[in-house]
Amino acid sequence: MTEFIFPEDFAWGAATASYQIEGAYQEDGKGESIWDRFTHSRGNIVNNDTGDVACDHYHRYREDVVLMKELGLNSYRFSIAWPRILPDGKGRVEQKGLDFYKRLLDALLEVEIKPLVTLYHWDLPQKLQEKGGWENRDTVKYFNEYVQLMYRELGDFVPRWVPHNEPFVVAFSGNFLAEHAPGYQDLGKAIQVAHNLLLSHGMAVKGFRESGLNGEIGITLDLNHVYAASDSESDRLARNYCDAFNNRWFLDPIFKGKYPEILMNLYQEELNKIEIEDKDMDIISQEIDFLGINYYSRAVVSYDEDSFFKYKQLAPQKSEYTAMDWEIYPEGLYDLLKRLNRDYTSKPLYITENGAAFDDQLTEDGKVYDKNRIKYLEKHIKAAHKAIRDGVPLKGYYLWSLMDNFEWAYGYSKRFGIIYIDYENKQRRILKDSARWYQELIAQNGLKDL
Fold first, then answer.
1. CATH number for domain 13-435, candidates 3.20.20.210, 3.20.20.80, 2.120.10.30, 3.40.50.920
2. Which of 32, 166, 216, 327 is catalytic?
3. Which of 193, 194, 388, 444 could be 134's S-S partner, Cβ–Cβ 3.0 to 4.6 Å?
């Protein structure tokens, strides 16, 4: 029998995000977010879905915590909706919103599930977007005020903080590709947004140190390992461009205090228009306690002279793919973890998201037989174990996602959860086979191959 047993203090968790699960978008004084506005504009989301109700977690959080406990989770990663706390993004505090998260934290701690709290998972207050959003440097100041409020109000209950989730997606999917809120197609805007997000991250870390709170603070980046399609010099150059765009534009400022030169040269025209102050990099590169990694797939690229970024991404034909058309490549997780530990940090690493969407079907007997998800998870968890065995300081794994939810531009058409949400039957929760599999894995702290 082969065993893949993890360290005794390993964090086994699952992750969610506020807009994707909470619903209650106008309740108890919550302000409008950019995602409320974006989804209410027809044509932006598959089937014109919105997060107005989502999984109704705002009203059913106690039931969801019971399910977390049943699964054996020892940690839960969730995000706080900024406009639920500060409806205008600044100024007046909505106590009812604050009380909701205090109740959620109480419920988690009561059953000994440690919270990992993300302070920004994309739902910017619409009032701030109307003042320029993340392109406006003032938003950095307002975010810092919000963060400081959260430290004061929730600091005694939260052992681990993530100010930002996937700033790449916020900057480029929202402001360059127009796939996400607020829906712009402007490279200069995206670069300014990326810089301001990184600056606000650094200020959040600085503020955390000054607060004297116990606990840890890090950041969660969506990262992938980039492979050249061939060993040719041009394909290797394509790999370097893709790696700089996907990974290094955020890794390098945090860990090395500078942006990657290969993109600084490419972005020269845009950089002449944006606001970067001399001391910004000192703030951005504040030392963090851990790095969170969201990994779903790899990138395989070849050189493309006609592309602005000098590469095109390929879809290997012999590979398996998820319902998102993302290649299943667990070896990429191992290679990424090794690379991060070698090139960037000896600090603890956490896999803060990993999972897959498949076309799950609820059977007549009320079951969801998602063997393909179990297979996906098993392979990636084995890759994570191999990284630990080879010296990577990986300290936890958070499955994406605890439950099916609003999958951004795809609405409810894609299911990532290990808990099935029956949207047509009052958001009924049903444990999929993958949930029972994960429950067993946590109970034995790993995998045992017969």
1. 3.20.20.80
2. 166
3. 193
